[in-house]
Amino acid sequence: MRKIVMIIFSFIFIFSIAGCSSKTENKKSEEKVIKMGFVPLKNSEQLIEDVKPIAEYLSERLGVKVEAFTASNYIGVVEGIGSGSVDFGIIPPFSALLAQKQSNAQPLLTSKGTTGKPGYTAELYVRKDSGIKSLQDVKGKKVAFVDPSSSSGYIYPGAMLVKAGINLEKDISYQFSGGHDKSLQLLLNRDVDVIATFDGVPERYKKDFPNAVNEVEKLATSDMIPGVMVTASNKMDKELQEKLKQALLDIEKDPKLKELFKKMFSITGFSDVDQDAYSKVEATAKIMNVDLDKVK
């Protein structure tokens, strides 16, 4: 009888251990993951690999796993923030405005550029041997924009051309490349005559396109664009939003991480959002006949 009782207790012990192990495994499988969104600045797989140190830093600071996400186009990240499948994005100002307008996304921080100011500029680049010396010379040429929702890759440089008297639908032929690096490649390959992108793009991609620094030059520079914005889904936990803000504000204290942000995004830190500054983005979009409520 005693042996039987011992056998029963042994089975109970084994099953209870198995049950605990199963619960632990289920808990691990249900581990909370925060999605950090980026627009497609470069090849998606490479971008996700490059931002791993950022994801690891934020995972440690937030106490939850952070994974990077990038869509095939800019609006994909905006839609992800709206649906909550992307918890927050480090995204250009026009995309941030779209997210705010369309899904009440929360603006958390504005990035500071290499000058220390909360902003950057768009540029029109041409090949040095193109013979294009003025905005008026762009008439009749082939232009590569990046994406219809890109501030530096479409909205601001497009507005520069419009102000110079260029009708985008009649006076030029244009295409959307899908990425700043892809636009640079089109220019170097002579597939287009002009590209619209951010300041310093030849230096940013000199590893991939070492000839760019010597072969291309700026044609025109835009007004200051408000900085890239950290934008949270309105479904993201408020306490996590505050932790995220503080973690990103603290990167200026971490030389290695600060250098990574500078190298990848020309970001040297973050500051509080001046929402009034972003009204200029919306005004510039109107020059391009872009309605924030209707962009899809």
UniProtKB/TrEMBL annotation:
GO cellular component: ATP-binding cassette (ABC) transporter complex
Domain Solute-binding protein family 3/N-terminal residue range list: 33-268
One GO term (biological process): transmembrane transport
Pfam families noted in UniProt: Phosphonate-bd
Keywords annotated in UniProt: Signal
CDD domains: PBP2_PhnD_like
NCBIfam families: 3A0109s03R (TIGR01098)
Family per similarity comment: Belongs to the phosphate/phosphite/phosphonate binding protein family.
Designated name of the protein: Phosphate/phosphite/phosphonate ABC transporter substrate-binding protein
Organism: Gemella morbillorum
